[in-house]
Each structure stands twice: as C-alpha cells, then as structure tokens.
Fold each of these.
Amino acid sequence: MLQILGKATSINVRKVLWTCAELNIPFEQEDWGDGFRSTQTPEFLALNPNGLVPVVRDGDFVLWESNSIIRYLASRHDGAWLYPADPVARARVDQWIDWQATDLNRSWSDAFLGLVRRSAAHQDAAGIAESIDRWAKHMRILDSQLDATGAFVAGRHFSLADIPIALSINRWFSTPFDRPHLPAVAGYFERLNERPAFSRYCRNGKP
C-alpha cells in the first residue's frame, strides 16, 4: 500500500492526499514535520535529503516533491482523465502546476507567513504589502484564465492542475487582508464544492 509521509496540515501533503482521493488510491499516512516526527532524523533524510514533506513510498520506490508525486500517481493509477496523455493537453496542465509552484507561491509567501503563521522573520509591513501586491497580480492572471475557460484552470474539465491551484486559492481566502473581488476565482472555488475531496483536503479550515 502507498505510504505518505507528512503531516496532513501541510499544503503540499494535502496535494497528495487529494490526488489519492480523486483516484481512489488506498494509502497509509504518517505525520512527519513540525509538531510531529522530525524530518531531520537520519531515517527521514535517507528518504529525502531536503528534510521536507511529503515523501511517498510505493513498494521499493521512494519519491519526494509534491508535484512530481501527484504526476506519478496520476500516471500510475489510470489517471488520464486528470493528467492527459495527449502532449498538448498535458502541457496545459503542467503549465499551471508549475506556475503555482513558482510564480504564485513566491508571491504569497511573505504575506502568508507574516499574517497567518505570524513568523517573527516576516513582520516587515512594507514586505508584507509588497507580497500582497504581487499576490493580487498573480491572482488576477488566474481570474482571467478562469473567466476564459468558464470552468477549470486548464480547460473545461477538472484536472491535476486544479489541485495545487485550489490549495493556493484557499490560502488567498484564508489570509486576513483586503482582497480585490475576483469573480471568476470566487465562482471557481464554489464549483469545486461539488468534489468531496475538495471539502476534505482543501476547504477544511486549514490555510
């Protein structure tokens, strides 16, 4: 059975849990990370030298990096409806997965850490304001994309890209600041309520 190492409150672990739920993959999950078992032990570092969650063990195969994990799971478990085999359709999905991990995540990091996590290293008001401005810029890009598709991030159908994107949107709505109204983003987030795994692993009270 697939083993998932990482605490369920982690946004990156929740990507993996949500993907497993969509694909009906049975798994065992172990809590590792802050507040649980340390990821800096020799045992964990032998699995992921970066000391970060999630890590999955699938038999003898060990994999880390959340986006690599969800791509692997979809490819291994007949998930072409989530992660298309067609090169063009797959590239569209990959584009938005990678955008979430780079441009979008980098934009909200300082604001989220300062306003939600209350990190002592992220309390500079100017730095938080700049982060909010960058975040809003990228969320407007996303709003424009969702307005164009009228449905989901990569097109008319739910795909693997929607999992990391929706988890970032959850942080957008969970962070206390004055947000611009983005109607396509708001409508998209409500549409996702139809998916049980969204309620369990994304809109579950955890930012």
Note: The chain has a mean pLDDT of 96.
Amino acid sequence: MELVAPTPRVILEESQEDTNNERRIVDLEGVEEERELARRRSQRYQKRMTRAYAQAVRLRAFTERQLVLRTAEHVRRNLLRPSKFAPKWEGPYIIREAHDSGYYYFTKEDGIVLTEPINGKWLKQYYT
C-alpha cells in the first residue's frame, strides 16, 4: 500500500499553477510590444549617430593644380615617430590628377612626378 501525502510546497505550487500560466500568457503578449519599442529606440539611436558622424566628417574635394599637404608615412601607417619633433605633414605638393573616387596624383613643386596615388583623406589644403 502506498500513501501519498502532498507536502506544503506541492500544494502551494498546484494552487499557483493557474496564476503562473496567466502571467506567462501576459508576458508573451507583451513581448511584441517590447520588441517594437526596442526597434524604435535602435532606429532613433542610429539616426543620432548618423547625424553626429555627418557633422564631424567634412568632405574634402581637391582640384587639379591645387597645393596640398599629405600626412607623413609614419602617421598613415600608425607607426612610432622617429622623434616627437618629426613633422606630421609633408609637402606642399601640386595635384596633377584628381579622380572622382577620391584618389589624387601629385607632382612636387620642383617638377618631380610622383607615381603613387593617395587617398584624399590623407590630404589637407596648403595655404600660402
């Protein structure tokens, strides 16, 4: 003969089972609303970041025969400088060819033609 006497914990769980099921259903119904709120927050955040980036980034467009400075090799490659007094900019150079893709070809002021192109993000205008 087997005698089963439920413990107080089992009795409590059985009585709360219906309320737990109702809570789960309510939680599941609220999941879609929470996802929608999170999606809207994410979109607002992305718009703010896009706006901040657009304000910080300045489009640099140079024309042919314009004088520019280019960043030094150690700055472009993120290497240690030869000394703390080493210049960060080289030049001035004259733009020989300007491409729509943002790459430029140079000549030095003494007429020496440089064959390697450089991206416009490594340039800045030279003011005489």
Note: The mean pLDDT is 85.
Amino acid sequence: MLNTLSGRFLILTTVFVMLAEVLIFVPSIARYRVDYLHDRLERAQIASMALLADDMLDSDLEKELLRNAQVFNVVLRRNEMRQLMLSSPIPEPIANTYDLRDAGAAILIRDAIRRLFTPENQIVRVIGAPTQDAGLLIEVTIATAPLRTAMIDYGLRILVLSAVISIVTALLLFVAVRIVLVRPIKGVVGYMKRYAAAPEDARGIIRPSAGVMELREAEEALLQLQTELTQFLKQRERMAQLGGAVAKVSHDLRNILTSAQLITDRIEASEDPSVRRLAPKLVNSISRAVSLCESTLAFGRAEEPPPALRMVSLVSITGDVIDSERLALSGPEVTLENRVPEGLELRADPEQLFRVIMNLVRNARQALEASHRPGRVTVTAREDNDSWWIEVADTGPGLPAKARENLFTPFRGGARAGGSGLGLAISAELVRGHGGTLELAETGPEGTVFIIRLPRSMTALEVVTG
C-alpha cells in the first residue's frame, strides 16, 4: 500500500494538509488568547462601572464582581488619572505586563506560544483600551493558569478538526488519484502485459483514450511502439521461417526443374508419338515450380495489417466463398453447402475472414477432388455468450499423419501433394490477429472438421456497426 502511487499520494496529502493546519493553528491560538484577555478587560470594565454607579458597594459585592471578571484588581484611567476601582489580595508578584493596545502580530504570536509552553501559574498585568470610550486605558491583573487551560482546550479542538479535515481531504484526493491517474496507468500496464503475452493478438494493441494530456501522450507512444513492433515481429518470424525453408525449397525446386528439363530434352530429341503424353507432365512440373516460388516469395514479404474489426454478416462472406469455389469445381462429385444461419453477425475483418474460410473450403474441395470420390463440404456457424464458432467440414479421406504433425507450420503442413503448406499457416495467423483460434477438431476416413473461434470480448478496438 505505502509503495504504491496512490498510497504515497495519500501520505503526502495528509502531511501537507497537517502542515497547512499548523500554519493556521499558530495565529488562531494567538487570536484566541487576545480575545480571552479582551473578554477579561470588558468584564473588569463592567464591574468598575457598577462601582462608579454606587460608591457604597460593600466588600462582599466587590469580591463577587472581581470573581465574575476573573481578575484580582482593576485600574481605570480617566482624565489622565489612574484610579484603582476594584482590588483584592494578589497571591504573588506580577511576572509580566502585556499591553494589547499596540501589540503587533509577531508579538502576540510569540506571547501565545510562550504561554502554551509555560505550565506554572503566574500573575500578569494586562493593559487595554476601554470599550465605548469609557476612559484612556484599563488595567487588570489575572492568573495565567485559567488562560493556559482555555488555550489548550481550544487548541485541541482545532487539532481534532484539522485531523478530520486532513483525513477527509486525503481520502477524497486518494479516490480522485486512483480514478484520474492510477486506473488509466493500470490500463496501460494491462495493455502492455496482454501485448507481451500475445503480440499477434490485435486486442492487445492499445487505443488511446486518456483525458490527461501526459497519459494520452504515453498511450499514443505505446500505440506506435506496438504497431511497429508487431510488424517487425511478423516480418522477423516470416523471414526466420523462410530462411529455414530455403534449403528445402531449393532442393525441391531443383528436382522439379530437372524433371522438366529431362522431359524437354526428350521432346527436342525424339519424334516419338508418346511426346503428346509427356507434354502435360512438362506443363505440370513447371507450374508446380512457379507456384512454389510465388508462394514462398509472397510469404517472405507479406505484412498483414491489424484487422479492421466491425460487425459483419457471416452468411454473406461464406456465400461469396461458396460461389467462388463452385466455379472451380471440376465435376459434379463434390457439393458445397452454406448452412450459416441467416442474420448471424460477428465482429471481424471481412476481407481477412473471407481469406481464412476460402483457404479451408478450398483445401477441403481439393482433397475431395484428389480422392476421386463423391463428397460434400459444409460451412456452419453458431454463437454463445463468449464466442462465435465457424465450422468447415468435409467428407473427404482425412489428413495424412505427416500433415497433422505440422499442420500450421509454413512449408511443412501441406495437406496435398504439391502444396506449399502456407494456406493454413496464414489462416491461423489471421485468426490469432482477431484474438481467436483455428483448430483441427477431427480428421479421419469419415471426413475432416476445422473450427474457427472468434471471441466476443472487445478491449482495444472500437466496434463499428456495419
């Protein structure tokens, strides 16, 4: 608690508020002392006025007047003459004289502090100006013990009030700091942790939203850093994979081109009628070499941007995929079915999601066509409270064991002869960019099922309703 930003701010606020209260306390206690002494002077003046009204007051009444005024004697100066109005025995000599008529603030504060720190009772003379112009001055002698006791009581009330004000102020500032500063900072830290755990997940990329200028600048700097780092990591990963596959690609490409060269030599050197049968092999060999080179180069230089997420109709995307693949069917043995419910909408980048579903449907179609048996490719979807689920299933022969072991590894996860293995790797990367997963649910002689899961949660990008 004490080593947190809000905790330290709470302590500093309490200290500073208490310091301010101390600065207020000192002049307040001095003001209280002056008011106390003026009150005694006013009481003494009233008592002396009673004596002036009746010169024949008995001694008991004089003692009562002095006791009510809490003084030992009263001297009133009128018309340049000092007159002892009321008097009683003084228990000890006068220790100090205080003239309140022209005392400055510094002197009053000094006298108040001295009185607080002088515990013994003393007899002091206090001089002031009478009220209502009742004379030139009034002078009384009083004991300091009641004054000090009253000052201490007043000071304790001030300190308690100051403590309450300090605590309430500190707590309010503590809450304000947590809302205005600590919570946004923790939000930035959360984005950093999520991004560090999964740099390919676009939800970990921060979206600046802070109202405080300094925090907004930090969020924008983090956004730029995350964007540049994401592109760098993708490029680095692809280049590393590309570098590891160069030797294999070179070997395979050399073998393919060698076969093509031998067939070409046969065509040039022989007029055998079998040349017509060899010509398609030459074309296929060269096509596979070109396709492999193009896929390799495309993967090495591709830089997938973060997905532009918005609410889209899934049935329209899968409909476009099915219509496109139907044009590529080589015969009536394979059927393509779109069973996505009408009205189902999900949050995704429509172009990237089209590419993912296209790769899965195309792989399924090509696998069925290569098996030379009737089959069906079906696209379905459902949703629950947490995710959207898209399923691409076929009734094909299933994936070979080698393909299952390296299914999403570039250049190693190809499921058909002549494939580069990039389609599933790119699809999995695109789905991870949405914060989701692409998994092989099952495969075997009865068919293969791939499942795409896209999360409903949205923490980084604004939802744009399409």
Note: The chain has a mean pLDDT of 78.
